[in-house]
Design goal:
The chain is mainly alpha-helical. It is built from five helices and two strands. It has one domain. Helix 2 runs antiparallel to helix 3 and helix 4 packs antiparallel against helix 5. The radius of gyration is 15 Å and the shape is globular.
């Protein structure tokens, strides 16, 4: 992680966006894990929670790009996620992103929320890696 990514992550945490996103995504993961059917969605929410804690210098990529095998049904599960929760979560992250982009200082944080909005649409099968790295 470069110095700019480190600085961005520190400010992201101090500003409060990182902590709030981490707590909300973590709570969503806990609630989803209550039922057996929701466990895969809960695990995906936990991955996003960890990613949302330190989004600068990291990116979420498809597991297949890392040489991992795609789990059967991931596409269908992502469709369910999109219809039931993903679209609403993405809209919230986009709104927060626009809110942050109002000021010049907030633009990097708005972009981080846009990155979270993109993964909110279909989180299953994603892995966090250092930006520019392959995660190995």
């Amino acid at each position: 992680m470069g110095p700019w990514a480190l600085l961005g992550n520190v400010i992201w945490l101090v500003w409060g966006s990182g902590v709030a996103c981490f707590l909300f995504w973590g709570l969503a993961g806990l609630l989803l894990c209550v039922s057996v059917v929701g466990i895969p969605f809960g695990i995906a929410a936990f991955r996003i929670a960890i990613f949302s804690l330190l989004p600068f210098g990291n990116q979420l990529v498809e597991a297949e790009h890392l040489g991992q095998e795609r789990i059967t049904g991931t596409g269908f599960a992502n469709l369910l996620w999109f219809l039931l929760a993903g679209i609403w979560l993405a809209i919230l992250h986009v709104l927060w992103g626009v809110f942050h982009c109002i000021t010049i200082i907030g633009i990097p944080f708005g972009l981080a929320h846009f990155k979270l909005a993109r993964v909110s649409l279909a989180p299953l099968g994603k892995r966090s890696v250092l930006a520019g790295g392959d995660g190995r």
